[in-house]
Amino acid sequence: MKGETLFENFKAISEKEWKQKIQYDLKGKDYNEMVVWNSPEGIKVKPFYHADDLKHITLKSTPVSSWRIGQSIYAGNAIMANEKALRSIQKGAEALRFLIPEASVNIDTILNNIDLSTIKVYLNMQFLSKEFIVKALAKYPRSKKLHFQIDPIGNLAKSGNWYASMSSDTLLVKDLVSNEIENLLSIDVSLYENAGADMVQQLAYAMSHANEYLNILLESNALSKLKSIDFNVAVGGNYFFEIAKLKALRNLWQVLASAYDISVPCHIVAEPSKRNKTIYDYNVNMLRTTTESMSAVLGGSETVFNLNYNAIYKKDNDFADRIAINQLILLKEESYFDKVENPAEGSYYIETLTNQLSEKALLLFKSIEKDGGLLKQLKNHTVQHKIADSAQKQQEKFNAKKIVLVGTNAYTNENDKMAHELELYPFVKKNPRKTLITPIIEKRLAEEFEQNRLSHE
Predict the structure, then answer these.
(1) Confidence band, pLDDT 50/70/90 cuts, at residue 8
(2) Burial letters 115-146, b for 16+ CB under 10 A, else e
(3) How far apart are CA 168 and CA 172, in angstroms?
């Protein structure tokens, strides 16, 4: 009939009717036991999601500009780092992250001939130096594409020590922020994922981590000078959950920022997790990093840095770098992952997961703050124990093949030999030293399995 649409010919089906149909098809079997599963975060995942699931959820639109293809570069040698950066730009990189080991590295050499008006640069400094930052700003005073990514608390959590001391490190943070330096602070959330924290823990620790800096700045009347904050996030293999994790992170930051009455943008930098990467059947890592990069983009990351498929055991090489960049180029240029703004927005499943992760993380965040905050829980090792418990549960599932890594604990190729291929030590390194706290240690799921297999080659 004139004026009718196709959908007017079909009756709307309620959530209740769908569930009744599933229960009928189950022929008496228990619905909750057969088709509902529990995630490690305690979320009951249903077999279907309906518009009714969004009735009590306030959807937040968070437009993100087109994401950038990133390339990470070790900058121990400034000349070689610059050469690699220029080659990477020619091959399609739109953002560069330099891992700078010490303040003596020449920033001018690193950035030579790099157009900062078009290329975003992240300086991942493995040290804390006001002089280094001041020198960079003197050379590039108006560059909003220069991110310094300083994170003394992240260094404490990872290494067990402050760069110098708590008072010295925090004083420098206050000083730098007071000078209204843009793109300065960074929160290393990737450490929690790579050490085995579940998603609720990652989100809650990220907020508590950021909240420590907000409190430091509030005490020194420098909070109003904070211009932006970066979150460095590692993305795992649970495709839809990881999309929801990133969306939840942005939502939680908005909640935290509003509590301080500040309007500070949240800049998300994402990379694939190391947790599920393997040295055996290493080509499967390309499949893992592809889906993880997809989650990073759909979750709303501003920049995505891919992980080389053989990064766990092999030194940087042009072939692996090229493959990693090409994966992102294919997503952007051929799969059109930059043509639709917020493609995951409005998805019944993803929005429900986002809301559930946000609520659970907010509860954990509040309990951490009630107990004195992240620094206190790091010092009394509460955070380390909680992450270790989560990691152990994941490990037990991996050992029981409830978590499957193809080529490692399932469908293994017994002819695959790796003992003579290792250029890097791919396992947890034991380096006994005096630390203020027990550091949070990154560890892959497959490590014990791989060590045992290597010993029998």
Answers:
(1) confident
(2) eeeebbbbbbbeebbeebbeebbeebeebebb
(3) 6
Confidence (pTM): 0.95
Question: Could you tell me if 70 and 95 are in contact, meaning their C-beta atoms sit under 8 angstroms apart?
Answer: yes
Angle at 446 between CA 441 and CA 447, to 5 degrees: 55
| Strands 44-45 and 37-38, sheet pairing | antiparallel
Laid out side by side, the sheet with 146-147 consists of 146-147, 120-125, 95-100, 68-74, 303-305, 266-272, 229-235, 185-188
Q: Which residues does residue 230 pair with via DSSP β-bridges, in sequence order?
A: 186, 267
Greater confidence (312 vs 433) lies with 312
What's the burial of 51, exposed, middle or buried (CB within 10 Å: 0-12/13-18/19+)?
exposed
3-state secondary structure the chain: CCCCCHHHHCCCCCHHHHHHHHHHHCCCCCHHHHHCEECCCCCEECCCCCHHHHCCCCCCCCCCCCCEEEEEEECCCHHHHHHHHHHHHHCCCCEEEEEECCCCCCHHHHCCCCCCCCCEEEEEECCCCHHHHHHHHHHCCCCCCEECCECHHHHHHHHCCCCCCHHHHHHHHHHHHHCCCCCCEEEECHHHHHHCCCHHHHHHHHHHHHHHHHHHHHHCCCHHHCCCEEEEEEECCCHHHHHHHHHHHHHHHHHHHHHCCCCCCEEEEEEECCCCCCCCCCCHHHHHHHHHHHHHHHCCCCEEECCCCCCCCCCCCHHHHHHHHHHHHHHHHHCCCCCCCCCCCCCHHHHHHHHHHHHHHHHHHHHHHHCCCHHHHHHCCHHHHHHHHHHHHHHHHHHCCCCCCECCCECCCCCCCCCCCCCCCCCCCCCCCCCCCCCCCCCCCCHHHHHHHHHCC
pLDDT per residue as tens digits for the range 89-103: 999 999 999 999 999
Token pair recorded at residue 243: 């999309």
| Chain segment 23-76, per-residue pLDDT in tens | 999 998 999 999 999 999 999 999 999 999 998 888 877 666 689 999 999 999
Which domains, ranges and CATH numbers included, belong to the chain? 149-353 (3.20.20.240)
Mean pLDDT of 324-329: 98
